[in-house]
Amino acid sequence: FDARDYMWMEAGAVIDADGAGYGQNAAPPGCTMPGTAGGGVHGGGANGAACGSFEWPTYMGGGGRSWAAGAGNGGGAVQLLASSRPASELVINGTVSASGNAGGGSYSGSGGGGAGGSIAVNASRGLFGTGTLRVNGNRGGSSGRSLSYDGYRGNGGRLAVHVASTSYTRDDFAGSVQAYASSSGPVRTWVSPGTVFWCLRAGSRLAELGNDTAGNPYGCGTRRLEIDNNGYNLYSAASPTSASAQLSDPGRTFYELDEVDIRGNGALSVHTQAEFNAATRPDARVQLVLSLIHI
Fold first, then answer.
1. What is the sign of the dihedral through the CA atoms of 152, 103, 100 and 228?
2. Which residues contact residue 294 at a Cβ distance below 8 angstroms, ignoring those fewer than 6 apart?
3. Do 224 and 256 contact (CB within 8 A), yes or no?
4. Is the dihedral of CA 33, 270, 257, 283 positive or negative?
5. What is the C-alpha separation between 114 and 71, in angstroms, rounded?
6. 46 and 34 Cβ atoms separated by less than 8 Å
7. pLDDT digits (tens, 9 = 90+) for 176-223
C-alpha cells in the first residue's frame, strides 16, 4: 500500500494477510524447516533456524510441518508506505495482520502452526494511532490424545517501522506492535517471538557514515530492537534458551543497535558464520554492539 501524502485506517478496519505466506512444509530462504509437527519459522525459532532481515523484512512466514493432519500456513508480507513528502504520515486505528494460521488436529498426529510473516512501514512524518500491527505465530493442532501427538506452536515474524522525522519518538504510536509466538494450543518446546525494529530519523546518518554502513545500512539516527513474547513462557524447562528471536542476515558480520528491549520471556541470539570454529577459525566471528539494553 503506497500513499503519497496520507494513509489512514479507522477503528475496525482490517488489512488481513493472515495465512497468506508459505504453505505447510515450506519455509522462507535461509530458514530451517522444522521436523514433524513443528511450528513454522521466520523471525524466531530454534536457535540457528530463523531467517530474513530484521531491519526491512520482506519474507512471508514459514508454514508448519504436517503430520497426520495438515499444518498452518505462514503469514503474508505487507508494506505500508507514506514517504513521498516530508509531511507524509500513516495513521493506524484498525488492524494490520500478517500472522500464521493454526495447525490441524488429529488423534494420529497434529500439524504445527504457521509462523508470522512481515510488516514493513516507511512513513516520513511518522506512524500514529491506537491500532494493532501483528506478525504472530499461530497454535499447533490438538490431538485430543497426549502432548506427544500435538502440533508445535508457530514462531513470531518480523516487523519494522522507519520514520524520517527528527521530532518523532517511539511513544508517538499509541497502538500495539506484535511479533509473538502463539499463546494458545498445546505447549511444546522451541518456540519464540520474532523481532520489532524501529529506525528513527531514518537516513539522517547516511552522509556521516559514507561507505561505512555495515552496522547501519538505513542510516538510522536511533536503532531500536524490541523482542516481546507478552509473558508467554514457551521454552523447554530442560533447555530454556533453545529458541530465540534471531539476527540472521546472510553473510553479515557486524550488527549495531542503540536500544534493545527484551521482555515477556523473549530471548535474542545472533547467527554465527558457517566457517566459525573456536579452535581453527576463531576470527570468523559476528560482532554485536549494543548501547542501551533493557531486560
1. negative
2. 259, 260, 261, 262, 263
3. no
4. negative
5. 7
6. yes
7. 999 999 876 666 666 899 999 999 999 999 988 888 888 899 999 999
Measured distance CA(281)–CA(277) in Å, rounded: 5
Cell (9 digits) for 256: 549495531
Cell of residue 63, nine digits: 508454514
Q: Which three cell numbers stand for residue 74?
A: 505462514
Tell me the chain's radius of gyration from C-alpha atoms.
19
3-state helix, strand, coil in the chain (%, to 5): 5, 30, 65
* CA neighbor of 112 nearest in space, from 157, 165, 58, 74: 74
Residue 71's pLDDT is: 97
When pLDDT is averaged across residues 66-79 and rounded to a whole number, the result is 97
Task: Return the SS3 of 52.
Answer: coil
SS (H, E, C) 9-20: ECCCCEEECCCC
pTM of the model: 0.94
Distance CA(177)–CA(225), nearest Å, equals 12
Containing 91, the helix (H) or strand (E) segment is strand 89-92
- CA 30 → CA 59, 70, 88, 249, 250, distances in Å? 10, 23, 35, 9, 8
Residue 117 C-alpha cell reads as 510473516
Give Cβ neighbours of residue 103 (< 8 Å, ≥ 6 apart).
37, 39, 64, 66, 69, 70, 71, 72, 110, 111, 112, 113, 114, 138, 139, 140, 141, 151, 152, 154, 185
CA terminus-to-terminus distance, the chain: 35
